[in-house]
Amino acid sequence: MANKISTLFNIKYPIIQAGMIWASGWRLASAASNAGALGLIGAGSMYPDVLREHIQKCKKATDKPFGVNVPMLYPNIEEIMNIIVEEGVKIVFTSAGNPKTWTSWLKERGIIVVHVVSSVKFALKAQEAGVDAVVAEGFEAGGHNGREESTTLTLIPMVKEQLDIPLIAAGGIATGSAMLAVMVLGADGVQIGSRFVASEEASSHPNFKNLVVDAKEGDTHLTLKELAPVRMLKNKFYNDLQELYKKGPTVEELKTLLGRARAKRGMFEGDLEDGELEIGQIAGLIHDIKPAAQIIDDLMVEFNKAKETVSSL
Questions:
Q1: Which of 277, 286, 293, 313 shows the greatest Cβ crowding within 10 Å of its Cβ?
Q2: What is the CA radius of gyration of the chain?
Q3: pLDDT score for 227
């Protein structure tokens, strides 16, 4: 399926497996890449030496293109970027920061750069910074999110109207029909996170994967907007947050309740009560845990079926 995104990354399908914390290590990234998508290693949950290990293992597990997602708000950013260059990674997705900070530096070293945004304003800033493509993510998405609360359905056509470089849609996409819908709206490809959390190769804890499969409509909520907006499943930790909000908490009080390693405790270690369980609204449509290759095959079968259905209308 040749288009701007599949050509840019030299992949079979214009599908990117999102680089998610505590879920997308080398096993998931290599499996997604081997199946024709672009696999991403999520550097946000890795110390530099751990990231290097994952990159090296991914290179052994696939001869297809793969990349690394780097949230720029994390410490050790310079060491992380140097490791990416030293290990010969050719694709980097940046997020949670100013794209001007690293885009030129990466591109000078022959790396394709994509930046994740949540608004038209930041999409244009990313384009101005020289990125090769933009991921526009609606607030349906799991994990850390934009403050604008723009939905994917509205965000994609608004970004497309003003953007000149390739556009990747994210947020609320887990089926082939959703992939077709956002491409009709102007996207050149899709980035998918939550569906791959419930994959066999994801490094997320089985307890978390099973909870995602059991999730229903309304089970996620966007909260902690005073710190960094994050969408998570409702659990004891979420309920504790809501009780604190009733008292009109300060930012420091919110930080104290959040503590450290809350997301690791939930998504990686499987604490379903006190962990932070980041997942998108689309969890309500995820009903099973499958190999990444099967997820990608299903997406493309559904995509082509949806095209046939639309053409018959």
A1: 277
A2: 18
A3: 87
